[in-house]
Structure formats: C-alpha cells, structure tokens
Fold this sequence. Notes:
The protein is an all-alpha fold and 348 residues long. The chain has one domain.
Amino acid sequence: MDLFVGLILVFVSGAMAGSALTPIKFMRRYRFENYWVVHSLTGTVLIPWALAFLAVSNLLGVYRSLPASALLLPAAFAFSWGIASTLGGLCVSRIGLSLAYALVIGIGGSAGALIPLLYFSPETLATRSGASLLAGVAVMVAGLVVVAGAGREKETKEREAGPQSEAPGRATIQGSFVAGLVMAALAGILSAGLNFSFTFGQSVTAAAVEAGASRINATYAVWAIAMLGGMIPNLAYALFLCAKNNSWGRFAASAVPDIPLGMLMGALFMGSTALYGLGAVKLGLLGTSVGWGIMQIMQIVVGNIGGFLTGEWKIAGPGPTRRMLAGVGILVLASIVMAFGNYLQEGA
C-alpha cells in the first residue's frame, strides 16, 4: 500500500511542478524580476515555514538541537537548486516551455536519481532493482535526445517563418537558442541539488521525529531550512534586476492578476516539493532515486502539455510535433521502468 501511495504522491508532485511555470504565459505587465520576487517569497519562505510550524511542534527547538553542519548542508544543496531555478525561468523565454522543461528537468532527473543511490547504497546497483533503475535512466536519456531534436526543429521553423510565428502568450525570445540550451544544461545539473538537500537532510528529519513528529510531518522541517538556501539566489537576482531595470513600479501597476499568478507559481512549486518528500518516505529505500526520477519525468510530460496548450508548437508542423510526442512517450516508459525497479526492491 505504501508503494502505491508513494507513487501516486510523486506523480501528483511532478504534475504540480510541471505546471509551476505555466502562469508566466499569462502575466500582463510583470517582467521576469517582478513575478520571480513574488514566486520566490511565496515558494521558498511563506509556504515552507508555515507548513513546518504547523507540522512540527517546537520546530526551533529541533533546529537548536542539531549541529550547524546538519542545517547548512541541506541549505547549501538548495542554494545550487536556487541558481538552477532562476536559470530555468530565464530559459522559458529563450527556448520555450516545452524544451526548457525537457532539458532542465531531464538532466536534473538523471543526476538526482543516481547520485543518492551511489552514495547511500551502491550495492543496490548489482540487484535487479538497481538494473531497472539504470535502465530507466538510460531510457530517460534517450527520450531527452528525441525531445531536444524536436525542439531544435521547432526553433528552426519558427525562425524561418519570421516574427509572426511567435506563439500566443510566449515572451519575446531574448538571446540565441544555443545560449538557451547551455543555460538549460547548467540549470539541469544544478537542479539536482533540491533532491540532495532532502537526501542529505535526514538528520533534521530524525531530530524532528525524536521530538514527536511523524515520519511524514518531519519532512517539512527539512524543506523549511533548505528553502532558505534556495531563496538566496532566486531573490537576490530578481531584486538586482528590479534595481537595474527600475521595475519597482510594476509591482503596483499590475497587481491583478500578476501577483496572484506569481503566488500560484510559488504554491505549485512548494506543494510539489512537499508531496515529493512525502512520496519519497513512502517509497522506502529507493524513494529519493526512483521517486525523484518519476517526479522529473512527470514535470516534462505536464510541461509539454502546457506548451502545446499555449500554442508553442503551432508553427512547428506535424514532423517536430510527432517527434516531441514520441520523446514524451519514451519518458513515460522510463518512469514505468523506474517504478518497476522500486517494486522489485520492495518485494525483495
């Protein structure tokens, strides 16, 4: 039963995360820095700390009982994710929602799935469940190759068609497609830090359980402290741009609907993160490997659905669209293979 519940939680988590950047498409006057300030404060401060105080009694006492290193490690890993988060947001305006999700999350999914397993239980790789996980990562990489190729074809067709081909609701493309791909690759590598912050924050979870919290509620204690690390690059860069572009006035100029949309981005992100933590606990030993991989794949699938619904692939034509759908199908297959690996581990 725990396996089934855990899989459902990480699937829903991925769906929420895959929708988290879609509100960008509907911003009226906010620039990147404006909605990123709202998103960052909501998703990395307001919601995680509210959840932690509600779920863990004497939360500050739990933190005081731990050495500084136990608190700094999750925050440091989340700091790297914060850089990735900012880069990912910038990628959307350069290479589109569909391709940005596929590359950033796919690369981060591969790293985030393998490294915790290699660190904590490398012997698992010699088992059938480990082989299934490796096969799932290989299938994921194959899906990413197909998706990236389809995205490149789409970009070429849009450039050939001229400015009139810009998809409805898509921000004006800034910078080159290649620059966007480089940013997406870097963001993908750094984004695995979010999984590492949870994986290497288990001493915080243990302290919260010892203080009386349930195994499930204890995960919120990790996210609250980790998200402070993630907040720093997200908020710092956005505030820097506000000062550089003198865009402070936009906060009031388009408070509705842009502020609620920015808060929705933060709520979807943190809701997804919290559900992933709960699902990883339910999945057991391979939770932070298999669970992370499945969540990332679901983000790609839902992110691509958002891209199709908002018209990103209208000009691309049937060829690239079919290839993108084929790539998404391969990624879905990867999630099935990885889930089967977790099933083998649970049944061992």
